[in-house]
Amino acid sequence: MPPTLAPAPPVHLTDILILGAGLAGLRAAWAAKQAAPGARVLVVSLRAGPSGSSFANVNNALGMQYCLTGEERRDFTAEAVALAPPGRIDPGLATIVAAESAERLRDLQELGLPFVRHPDGSLARHPGCFSASPPRAAVFTGLALAHALFTAKTTALGVEFLHGQRVQAVIPGNAVSPPRAVGALLAGQADGRPSIVIAGAVIAALGGPAPLYQLNQAGPGNPGYGLAILARAGAALANAAYLQFMWAEVHSKAFWPVSRLAEPGVTVMDKRGSYALVPQTLGGAPLEALAAARAGHCPFGYGLPDAQLDLFLAGCLARDHAATVRLPGGETAIVAPMA
Q: Is the whole-model pTM more than 0.85?
């Protein structure tokens, strides 16, 4: 009997392929369809529900910075450029982000996102991480609603969706000039069956590598190996050596502010299992000053003086990679750095 040949995988054709249906992916689909209403835009995702850390973070809130004046735009850009090293930043892109921020905020307001407002109805402006003053951030809550609104918007524009698919590879168009991606190889999440998408353009919004860490706050639908897929396809990667880490309670994954170490009477369990007071100076700097600076941002700050707080607590991690902090009043927090 002759060998049975496996059937050829189905092939989907589209103009613009977007890999990932988190906030970045859905916003890219929205923009693509608005810019080219006649183009076919296909979003491929692992799941139909909210995915990614923006639509499914444990704090159920998200914010964005926006600039209303030329001075705010210049300050934002200068701040971003100053914070970037030793990472890489394109000042031109930072300038564009600042210039377009107010218009992008209006897009989200018109979409119906429930932004936090003052009693008089005006939009509240909050401090941002690493950007405490002046406050430039608008914050909205209710991420499930946000996902529903984004999905409704993109669907109304004619964006197509292919859910339940795991991205296996991006197909490089080596014969295309200039070289670019021409599609993706997929596998069904339920059955592993392969399929191929051929596209005129590919936008990758697969998320970062946080899910590869045992302790992480990554939202669902992120495979964790998006950067590897891009590298195998020949993409140039920037800042891949950097990843955001925040302290969180181990059981709930809720954010835990490490600046609380400066509260009077706080003790931390050391590696011998004994509780000890937090030193009043770390790295030669006063504890209170470090805590005041550290309260201005949630993630660990690479190279910043207030990182002494993070390094101190990291030195108290037990074998289960968690630290035990006893707070005033007897409350105990079991916390760990999470990607």
A: yes
